[in-house]
Design goal:
Elements lengths: L2 E9 L4 H16 L4 E9 L11 E2 H9 L3 H17 L11 E2 L3 H12 L3 H14 L7 H10 L4 H9 L4 H13 L7 E4 L3 E4 L4 H12 L3
Parallel strand pairs: 1-2
Antiparallel strand pairs: 1-5, 3-4, 5-6
Helix pairs in contact: 1-9, 4-5, 5-6, 6-7
């Protein structure tokens, strides 16, 4: 009988290591098929909650926030591209020239969780931003992605046009910050075990296997 593990995956859409972490977690779960089943919940975290709607140039943002030189940024980009490729995901850095506000995307993700399509929307958001270079704060992009993963487009548009799910998203963000989560991805298993960062699949596999055997 497979052991069901509750996973709270705390992440932001604009975080490439979050995309890598999710892919690694899924590969680990596939390797443990028959022994482990993931009960996956995506929790919101905004790397740039004050980001303006029009976004900011990526190079300018990285230099301002992290003090990263162009050379350092290039090495990081190369590492991200290689990790993604190893997991079957395409990071198109030439397409992703700006970083955007992600609050409305988190609101839509919260709603998608209520509709049972959260994972599909999360995956679509990662692809739209990191592969296609689209703006995850643009409502038309969000509505289109919702429709593509089987959600009702009119209902999605209504969510985005209102402040629906805003309080819930802010409450969840504040909750995890109070728990000491200040960087993402943060993978919390069974409300007790923290796996931090975009770890390789084998690290997730070992951790999940160990947790699943606990009484």
């Amino acid at each position: 009988m497979p052991q069901t593990l509750k996973i709270d995956f705390v992440s932001d859409i604009s975080c490439p290591w979050c995309a890598i972490g999710l892919l690694s977690l899924q590969r680990a779960a596939a390797a443990l098929q028959g022994a482990v089943v993931l009960d996956l919940h995506f929790q919101p975290f905004e790397l740039n909650p004050a980001m303006a709607p029009e976004g900011q140039d990526m190079g300018e943002h990285l230099q301002e926030k992290y003090g990263a030189s162009p050379e350092q940024s290039q090495r990081t980009r190369e590492a991200i591209v290689a990790r993604g490729a190893a997991l079957g995901f395409t990071f198109r850095m030439d397409q992703r020239s700006r970083i955007y506000n992600t609050f409305d995307a988190h609101r839509l993700l919260h709603w998608a969780g209520e509709e049972g399509r959260q994972l599909a929307l999360k995956q679509a958001l990662f692809k739209a931003y990191f592969t296609e270079g689209e703006n995850p704060g643009n409502h038309e992009v969000l509505v289109r992605l919702a429709r593509e993963v089987g959600l009702d487009a009119d209902a999605a548009r209504d969510v985005l046009a209102s402040d629906r799910c805003a309080d819930e998203v802010r409450e969840r963000e504040q909750f995890y910050q109070r728990q000491g989560i200040h960087s993402v991805p943060a993978v919390i298993v069974n409300d007790r075990h923290l796996i931090q960062g975009g770890q390789p699949p084998e690290v997730f596999e070992q951790a999940l296997r160990q947790i699943a055997t606990e009484k």
